[in-house]
Amino acid sequence: MSNSNSKPWILNGFAMNVVGHISAGLWRHPQDQAFRYTELDHWIALAQLLEEGGFDTLFLADAVGPVDVYEGRPDAALRNGVQTPIDDPMLLVSGMAAATDHLGFGITVSTTYEQPFLLARKFTTLDHLTKGRIAWNIVTSALDSAARNLGLKQAIDHDERYNIAQEFLEVSYKLWEGSWEDGAVRNDRERGVFVDASKVHPIHHTGKYFQVRDANLSQPSVQRTPVLFQAGASSRGRTFAANNAEVVFLGGATAADIRNSIEKTREAAIAAGRSADSIRFITGATVITAATDAQAQAKYQEYLALADIEAALVLFSAWTGIDWSQYPLDHPLEYIETNAIRSALENFTRIDAEKRWTLGDIARYIGVGGLHPTFVGGPATVADALEQYAEESGVDGFNFAYAIKPGTFEDFVQYLSPELRKRGRIQPRPAQPQTLRERLQGQPQLRKDHPGRKWRTWESSEHQ
Amino acid sequence: MSNSNSKPWILNGFAMNVVGHISAGLWRHPQDQAFRYTELDHWIALAQLLEEGGFDTLFLADAVGPVDVYEGRPDAALRNGVQTPIDDPMLLVSGMAAATDHLGFGITVSTTYEQPFLLARKFTTLDHLTKGRIAWNIVTSALDSAARNLGLKQAIDHDERYNIAQEFLEVSYKLWEGSWEDGAVRNDRERGVFVDASKVHPIHHTGKYFQVRDANLSQPSVQRTPVLFQAGASSRGRTFAANNAEVVFLGGATAADIRNSIEKTREAAIAAGRSADSIRFITGATVITAATDAQAQAKYQEYLALADIEAALVLFSAWTGIDWSQYPLDHPLEYIETNAIRSALENFTRIDAEKRWTLGDIARYIGVGGLHPTFVGGPATVADALEQYAEESGVDGFNFAYAIKPGTFEDFVQYLSPELRKRGRIQPRPAQPQTLRERLQGQPQLRKDHPGRKWRTWESSEHQ
Questions:
Q1: Cβ contact, residue pair B74, A200, below 8 Å
Q2: Does this complex have an ipTM over 0.90?
Q3: Which positions in this protein are listed as binding FMN (chains A, B) (predicted)?
Q4: What is the pTM of this model?
Q5: Of A99, A150, A219, Cβ closest to residue B115
Q6: CA B61, CA B16: separation in Å to the nearest integer?
């Protein structure tokens, strides 16, 4: 399957500041070190490993409430370490940045519970400290369990969340792109001018959800706006992606479905005035690999045997919004007709669309790598399968999840990275560190056709 | 002045994620590197330097609005790099923590613009990553320039801010002290129990300002509650300190005034059920030192000559709430009768209480080290003066500000730290790293008499 026209993929390591992310109960594996998520050394070693293996980004998921749809309480999530407890992802970054030069950091932050004026400063601060290696994975927080701890009775409804998010991004662009001109920071000791104040502009934003008067508190970073990641395949989510995202994280029941989603998002981006190649697309996957196919299969069977049914149902309940503790394991899933489950199942039915799945089947499937497809085999086998999947679906890269941590990434780097390098799927390390956007989009700042650029009101046409 | 009963001081380095903190215009000094505040290496080197010099904590100030009382706009602050631009302090910490083992980090966060449920997770995350080296400097945000960027028309009034802060702390204690029992985290791979959910308790907080139902999202860190720092000498601030603070940062017109403030705060702490030694007190100071008194004086004169009048007036306007651009430099300050200026002046009049200060005098004074007293001399001279000042005022230690960065701290570590070590004023480095609270309060978690401990409702009397 190796393609002479092969171009490098976007390779992200996918993790969360928790014990158990999207695999179920595998923290009990003797080699699993995920319980060390509270230790800085654990994260630094992971970042160095990913950088060595040619990954572009460590993509950090987040949630700001406990996982508690299953049984209507967090007990099973706590018992199985399923995304509860959970620590803050953003605070890990400067520690990992100090020990790496090339790896990017994609950080999930919700627009529902932050102030844009303070979040702009946070992202600029991190972009400064990493010399431009930051991406923001924009989410809008659907969790009732977050809402009721943050002053709301329940989560704000879906479309309204996106309305808030769109205004949040508008404020953010004004702060990042509009409020400080290029060259505003002079650092001129002779004349005693640190900043040329005539090049710093209050934004005077007065909107439906936010009032923000001043310029960004932070001077611009090399990327200005962090690289904008977004997940979400709903119609409103797609409009939001078309207007904001540079990298979209999506799934689909089949490769053809993913391709269809990508095409629709591309059309929406073009309608928003952007070029067809302005957004890049990634999908989730888990790789279980070893020196040979047989060894990889043996490892996969070992993981499957440890995967925990209850932990998987906790995850499946969170993803579907349905309390699956109420149903027997032989419950046939195809008869449950809700949008929530159809959407959640889209990512797995490609494995065997003909099979009649029960709740128990899906719980066992989720065990290793969640609902994303799992690729098992030696280096050539997995690389072939990933290339086929990328070719059929049209994705530009992957968020690679782990079964055990850091073991799954160690195997990836040891066995698969050399094979992917050989096939041109890993971007060669540049002589000098570059920004994350240069790696992913070819230039350090937002492209000219990105809607965020229109807020550079200080930029006359001659500068463009 | 060396005292045979000398006990170690609390030694903090005092900084902010900005170019110019409390000295005025000294970023123009040829050796000043403060413009590198956006670079992680700059902060890591500073943290390592402070650790080498025996400092307990890097105390990071913050403000979440531009400095703009002077002329009613931020232009002069921007031009002179006076606390504007400003980056986030919290995001620096994991990078510095990775390069140090002993230094604590005191981080300023306002209770006015954060959600307690999310802030609890942030502090626990940092306390995890640093193995218990975190302090929270609690502030309540008086700045109109913050309020109008964060959804308010102007800052909430003083007493109401403290009412919010007190409920914020109550929620925080419930999350840190009350919601997770000791031993809740089992990490038992055999039984498949990561957390014993019966030992994790939703807090069900329903108050005037906050509604928070669930347990802390983070498992407890070694300190549980970060060490609680507080600045503020108002009557309401003193009540707040008595109920919450473990280290209070205060100033005063004379050493006797500081002693008086300390005594009043001690009385309030006793009234709140705490022992007389439960709170420790620090004050601000700047040290200009060198091998000899003459060299130190020469350095001080060099700094004074560079100090910028406009930058000093920007600071003085921010501290007093008065736009001093309206007044001539020969304006006599004693005739301006406002509480704001009296309070701001308290920190400096001790230098020469008989002198009739003009606006120009104070601007020149602020130039090096702001309104805090500046100690100039060789190691023995400065150590003598600090010991005298500590003896007279009764403080337990200092927040040491810089004139130039990192030069002022380099001089401190090179010249003064050996002298202070000789005099027993620097706590010897322990064989094993310890928590910040062990260094400052003798034990890793809140003392039994701290009001926050009463929220450990799971702790039966026999465990105490």
A1: yes
A2: yes
A3: 62, 108, 158, 162, 234
A4: 0.96
A5: A150
A6: 5
